[in-house]
Design goal:
InterPro entries: A/G_cyclase, Adenylyl/Guanylyl_Cyclase_3/4, Nucleotide_cyclase. By secondary structure, this protein is of the alpha+beta class. Helices cover about 60% and strands about 20% of the residues. Helix 1 packs parallel to helix 6, helix 5 crosses helix 6 and helix 8 packs antiparallel against helix 9.
Length: about 350
């Protein structure tokens, strides 16, 4: 019991030391303090805090640091200046909370897994080691987060500018579904059955290998990962032939990997709109439905997409097995199995 108490005390000290480094100061302010001292409306304080993913706090509970007060006030000032609306304020806060929360979990779990696999720690020991390691990495991690954000923002801004110019040249712009993209979904076949037969660590290895393989292919193929949910990954590409290359490459790579079950992929080219880092529209729904009925190891597209791919890259991919397919919530669609034709495989640089 004494040893256990000492361990608990050591963990508490590590957590306290880490919080001190991360929060950069003591908790000194309540919601009422920020409202009275800085003139920040309490509703925006509550909205900001909740949007970041933190629980509600009473107006007199001392929970905010000086850094918290500055961050909240800085974004609220943009609302006061008319640079953004309260709606945009909430959306931006939600995006920051969601993605930074996932990133924090990703990084800490990567360190835990490192301690297990490299140093032979059990889960509890690995998490203790993570608490001691994070302070040593803060400066580098912060630099990497800012660098990556700026590079990603530059890439998305360039893409938006290109779309504006293209729309101007074509003289057309769809206000409802303004984005023209290839959207695809890929998942592992019989993953539920697999999850029952494997242990937690083995299952995590399968999911990780699948995701890493897909992410590498999507990046090399010029696409972007939209999100991952369990064993499913969703991607976008700016041209139909790029979407086809990514979809077929994923199916091929997973099929040729003896450590993974087959994947099935659905892909469509069409119009959609973007919100909250995601995309929506009939094209997205169709792509997801096609994935659900694709053959193991295969890629399924609709007839319009196969024709768009052929126009963009004649002979690059082979369309076969055109068959009417009933899709739940959509109706009958002419589905086409897509495979590699004369197009060269992606050069993964490995």
């Amino acid at each position: 019991m004494a040893a256990l108490n000492r361990r608990f005390q050591a963990v508490r000290r590590s957590v306290g030391a880490l919080e001190k480094v991360l929060l950069q100061g003591p908790r000194e302010h309540s919601r009422r303090d920020l409202a009275e001292q800085q003139g920040i409306p309490e509703r925006l304080i509550s909205t900001y805090w909740r949007s970041l993913g933190f629980g509600p706090v009473d107006e007199d509970t001392v929970v905010f640091t000086d850094e918290d007060a500055f961050a909240i006030g800085d974004l609220v000032a943009m609302v006061d200046d008319g640079a953004i609306s309260e709606r945009a304020f909430t959306s931006i806060s939600r995006g920051l909370g969601y993605h930074m929360g996932r990133l924090a979990m990703w990084i800490t779990e990567a360190l835990v897994e490192e301690a297990k696999s490299r140093d032979g720690k059990d889960d509890g020991e690995a998490r203790e080691q993570m608490l001691q390691t994070v302070p040593q990495l803060i400066e580098t991690l912060e630099t990497q987060v800012l660098f990556t954000f700026r590079r990603q923002l530059a890439a998305y801004s360039a893409r938006a500018g290109s779309e504006v110019l293209q729309a101007g040249e074509n003289g057309t712009h769809d206000e409802v579904f303004p984005l023209h993209r290839a959207v695809g979904f890929a998942d592992l076949v019989q993953f539920t059955r697999l999850s029952r037969s494997l242990g937690g660590a083995e299952l995590a290895d399968v999911v990780t290998k699948f995701e890493v393989t897909c992410r590498d292919i999507i990046s090399v193929g010029g696409g972007r990962v939209v999100k991952t949910v369990g064993d499913e990954i969703m991607f976008l590409a700016d041209a139909p032939e790029d979407g086809a290359q990514i979809a077929v490459s994923i199916a091929e790579a997973i099929r040729d990997d003896p450590d993974l079950p087959s994947a099935r992929v659905g892909m469509c080219w069409g119009s959609m709109f973007s919100r909250y880092g995601d995309v929506f529209g009939p094209t997205v729904n169709l792509s997801a439905r096609l994935e659900s009925v694709a053959d193991p190891g295969g890629v399924l597209v609709d007839l319009e997409t196969s024709e768009a791919v052929e126009r963009a890259l004649p002979g690059g991919f082979t369309a076969s097995e055109i068959r009417p397919t009933e899709l739940h919530g959509i109706g009958t669609v002419e589905a086409v199995a897509l495979s590699r034709g004369s197009s060269a495989p992606l050069d993964m640089g490995l």
